[in-house]
Amino acid sequence: MRGRGLGRAGILLERLKLTLLAAVILIGILLLGSLIPLGDEEGRLVQEELERLGERGLELGIFLNNFTIALLGLIPFLGPPILGYAVFHTGRFLGWLGVEHGMPPQLLIPFTLNLIILTGYGILEFLGYGAAAAESLAISYYAIRSRRLLGRELRMLPLMIGLIAGFLLAGAVIEAALIRSLESLAPGPAT
């Protein structure tokens, strides 16, 4: 990792490059997870848990869930594996949703990829998670290599947390709007 002689803007640019790489890797992990769908009982439990997110307000519930995962992803050395596990499990849930709706297994990856790209919120969430992984990797690297650069990196941490929160908040607003619009299209109970 470079770092000597870079100002805040240079450090942020380097971190954004690492963020994009981490986001692409995490998307790959999600896609892999979609090929190993959850079992029916576990899928229904996750679905019920996700439905409870909206009890505090859908945007807030989605944001707090994703931000908590991202904050765990900032833990030095452990953050990237935690994020990898979380997105792999999410991929398994998306795979279960596809199977639940009768989707052929060969369409699970395109289905999952379309959810990420076409909805927009998936890209924002993965940028937030990628930024958390990038920051965790940077802190871990500097903890081993240079105490002076570690101090500088820790001073960048609040900025990175703000960036992560911004990505995830924007994603939560879009995701909640999409969920509400899909719910309004769904037919109500027959009377």
What does this structure look like?
This protein has 191 residues and is mainly α. It has one domain. The chain is 81% helix and 0% strand. It contains seven helices and no strands. The protein has helices spanning 8-34, 40-52, 58-73, 79-100, 108-119, 121-145, 147-185. The longest helix is centred in the C-terminal third of the chain and has 39 residues, at 147-185. The termini are far apart. The model has no long low-confidence stretch (mean pLDDT 91).
User: What can be said about the biggest beta sheet?
Assistant: none
What's the helix-strand series? HHHHHHH
- Please count the helical segments: 7
Unreliable sequence segments: none
The averaged pLDDT comes out at 91
Beta fraction of the residues? under 5%
Helix content: over 70%
Calculate the terminal CA-CA distance, rounded to whole Å.
63 Å
The figure for the number of domains is 1
Structure class? mainly alpha
Number of strands: 0
Rg, nearest Å: 18 Å
* Inertia-based shape: elongated
